[in-house]
Design a protein that fits this description.
This protein has 149 residues and is mostly helical. Helix content is 91%, strand content 0%. The radius of gyration is 19 Å and the shape is elongated. The two termini are 31 Å apart.
Length: 149
Amino acid sequence: MNEKLIKFTKFILDIMFFGGLLIFITLPVSLKLLGKYYSVAIYEYYFFMLAIFGISGVFGIIIISRLRKIMRTVKEKSCFVRENVSSLNIMALSSMCIAVAFLVKLFILPTPATGVIVLTFFIAALFSQVLSYVFAQAVSYKEENDLTI
């Protein structure tokens, strides 16, 4: 069961990564279309929204790529490595950058969803930072144990 879950999760992350790249590449065109047919605010604040979504897209892709790296170590059954500690730190910083970008949007073009995004990515940043600390401790214990044997 665990192997299937790992493969399924890796598959979902792959779809999210390549889908995110596609969305990022087509963002200028798709945002114009959304502004034209969905919301006048997007059309009026096109360059501002393009900057917010572009910045968030870059950091979102970074987060997904780091999750994919972590999943590789899970698949190899070597989770407690320094690379994962680094990935979690980068994910924390990336999440905080997304939270800050949407916090700026909240002051210029407030919506309830923007507040939820800020809170979600702020919590993700904190959670990633705590997990990074836990993984760093686990790596230290593992390295200590390896030296003992």
